[in-house]
UniProtKB/TrEMBL annotation, chain A:
It is found in: Cell membrane; Membrane. This is Transport permease protein. Pfam families: ABC2_membrane. Belongs to the ABC-2 integral membrane protein family. It is a multi-pass membrane protein. One of its GO terms (cellular component) is ATP-binding cassette (ABC) transporter complex. Residues 41-271 form the ABC transmembrane type-2 domain. PROSITE patterns: ABC_TM2. The chain crosses the membrane at residues 42-66, 78-100, 134-152, 158-179, 191-210, 246-265.
Length: 272, 351
């Protein structure tokens, strides 16, 4: 090379190393966000799909299900917080797909052969997916308002409801980060994700109250992370018992993160 | 004897298995600082696997690998500060532009925002990508992608650069461009480990060549040393009538060259000459065949190919020898070689 960018000295102190690690995470996050912008059709479809669910369920099943709802509750108000969670769950499988694609394409090889903070690739992925969730959830709320949904609580509660959705989606992202690191190829990652997510989402309080389910299923559904998160988000949106489902939901989120973050980091380090 | 140069990379007894396949079966290799070592081998020889071990991407099952005295497993972080890697398949981000790619890698290499931008511009200019700088990489041609990939490996000046098959699948023009960039880097004293399937390429670029096959280094030396084991040039004779092979051999017997043990096609004789006078040999062969009244369809002179070296070293042709032989002199004879598309292998090794 005619010009030589200076030979860079390795960062000196622990504090410097930490700052560099945070920067690396931000750079990789920024790169992943760019990907979303460059593929707007993906963003659009991942927003349209849950909205379609809302419309189908609210108008097709609304009448039939209405009778099993608590008195005075509209089905669309009941449904939308559930759909937030359902959509977050399905989108979290995209974390595995995105990671698997990266691994296939070799750009991760370049990252791994460079002196960058080890977990930056993983954190950059999940952080970008979290930001995408913020965007999609707000968009869904706006569309919800068009079709008659209303938060029946205060602004703070509504914000808390959305935070529950985001925390839940973030935790699931880490599970699917692990899936993305384990399976080979984006398609395998996609199928693995759906196999895991479908039963969880349908055996939950997303669409109907769990009390309408057969006994065995009800037991499973009532402790599922999906149900407790839906219940927490729902109570924060339309009123009802908040504390218990919220605590349970946060416990699930913490437990998932505590297990899967170290698993993912270890797996990533050991790759090869 | 005093050591005048230090060792940039040292590989000792490296074994790497993938399930039941042994990709590397005890490789030893040394790359002196400031030198260019060409690792020459056919498909599946283990070239990529060895490069990935040295680039800290793969853990070997046995043996040691060091880069500037640093162990690639224990001191992986420090090794990554010193190396540049241009893998067999371009490791750049398809959805970003060329400029965005270089800036991103620059930032990750701890350049300031401004520093990364300046460096990106320099490299884009240098690698003839300036006009395509703001296009998404997925719109780039194979050659442009290769150049961007190479540029990405040079953002901070690495002390050793690993180049895995830098020209496979490129047309002769792109190949020449890559060659001239490599020569420049060498001129600046960069240490290089370069893998290739083409003897010609190793010969053109490398100071020393290690021939690798089935996960083992089976020969090492300068290009001339290797070629001398086969012959300096090859004279290929195709007869009009394959039946006349015996008579043709008889007629050629008097020439001062030996028949190379290669009979891919009926009615073909390949002669290996050790002297410099290949053209004289063609003339002599033509005269000999003519005076014996044997009709010749084709008479040609070529450099030894990887296949010839292989034949000599192992007594058997490479798995896809025909391909290697076809392309081995592609860099010299520009016309007629479109450059085959690179086979995109599924998922890279190491997962
Ligand atoms: N991840 C992997 N899983 C299983 N086998 C592998 C893996 N990576 C490489 N191999 C096998 O190891 C051997 C050496 O492969 P390698 O890619 O190192 O060869 P190569 O010399 O680079 O070949 P090519 O010229 O085709 O690139 C091959 O038999 C290959 O099939
Ligand atoms: Mg290879």
């Amino acid at each position: 090379m005619s010009t030589q960018a200076g030979v860079v000295a390795p960062p000196a102190s622990l504090a410097r190393r930490f700052v560099k690690a945070v920067e690396d995470c931000l750079i990789v996050t920024g790169r992943n966000l760019r990907h979303f912008v460059r593929q707007p059709q993906l963003l659009i479809f991942s927003t349209i799909q849950p909205i379609m669910f809302v419309l189908l369920f609210a108008f097709v099943f609304g009448g039939a299900i209405g009778s099993s709802l608590p008195p005075g509750v509209e089905y669309v108000d009941f449904l939308l917080p559930g759909i937030f969670i359902q959509a977050a769950a399905f989108r979290s499988t995209q974390t595995a797909v995105g990671l698997a694609e990266d691994l296939d394409r070799g750009v991760i090889d370049r990252f791994r052969a460079m002196p960058i903070a080890r977990p930056a690739v993983l954190i950059g992925r999940t952080a970008a997916d979290l930001l995408r969730n913020v965007f999609v959830t707000l968009l869904m709320t706006a569309v919800g308002y068009i079709i008659g949904f209303r938060f029946r609580t205060g602004v703070l509660d509504a914000a808390a409801a959305i935070c529950v959705v985001l925390a839940f989606g973030f935790a699931l992202s880490w599970i699917f980060t692990y899936v993305g690191l384990r399976v080979r190829g984006a398609e395998a990652a996609q199928s693995a994700g759906f196999v895991a997510i479908f039963p969880l989402v349908f055996a939950s309080s997303v669409f109907v109250p769990v009390s309408t389910m057969p006994a065995g299923l009800e037991q499973f559904a009532s402790v599922s992370p999906v149900t407790v998160s839906v219940d927490a988000a729902r109570a924060l949106s339309i009123g009802g018992e908040v504390a218990e489902p919220l605590l349970q939901s946060m416990a699930w989120v913490l437990a998932i993160l505590l297990i899967f973050v170290p698993l993912c980091v270890r797996r990533y380090r050991r790759m090869g | 004897m005093a050591e005048t140069t230090s060792t940039a990379a040292r590989v000792q007894g490296i074994v790497k298995r993938f399930g039941t396949t042994e990709a590397l079966s005890g490789v030893d290799l040394e790359v002196a600082e400031g030198s260019v070592v060409g690792l020459l081998g056919p498909n599946g020889a283990g070239k990529t696997t060895l490069v990935r071990v040295l680039a800290t991407l793969l853990r070997p099952d046995e043996g040691r690998a060091e880069v500037f005295g640093l162990d690639v497993i224990r001191d992986a972080g420090a090794v990554r500060e010193l190396i540049g890697l241009t893998g067999q398949f371009a490791a750049v981000d398809e959805l970003l532009s060329g400029r965005e790619n270089l800036r991103m890698f620059g930032r990750l290499f701890r350049l300031s925002r401004r520093g990364a931008a300046v460096r990106a511009d320099e490299l884009l200019e240098r690698f003839d990508l300036a006009t395509a700088a703001d296009r998404q990489v997925k719109t780039y041609s194979g050659g442009m992608r290769r150049r961007l990939d190479l540029a990405s490996s040079l953002i901070t000046r690495p002390r050793i650069l690993f180049l895995d098959e830098p020209t496979t699948g490129l047309d002769p023009r792109s190949r020449n461009e890559i060659w001239s960039v490599v020569r420049e880097l060498v001129g600046e004293g960069m240490t290089l480990l370069l893998t290739t399937q083409y003897l010609e390429e190793a010969d053109q670029l490398a100071d020393r060549i290690a021939v690798i096959d089935h996960g083992r280094v089976i020969a090492e030396g300068t290009g001339d040393e290797l070629k001398d084991r086969v012959g300096a040039s090859m004279v290929e004779v195709r007869l009009e009538e394959p039946d006349e092979l015996g008579r043709a051999r008889e007629a050629l017997r008097g020439l001062s060259c030996e028949e190379h043990q290669e009979a891919e096609q009926p009615g073909q004789i390949v002669l290996a000459t050790s002297g410099d006078d290949g053209v004289g040999m063609v003339a002599a062969a033509a005269r000999a065949l003519d005076s014996a009244g044997i009709a010749v369809r084709d008479l040609s002179l070529r450099r030894p190919s990887l296949d010839d070296v292989f034949l000599e070293l192992t007594g058997s042709a490479t798995a896809d020898g025909a391909e290697a032989a076809d392309t081995s002199d592609a860099g010299r004879s520009a016309a007629g070689d479109g450059g085959e598309a690179p086979e995109r292998e599924p998922a890279e090794a190491g997962r």
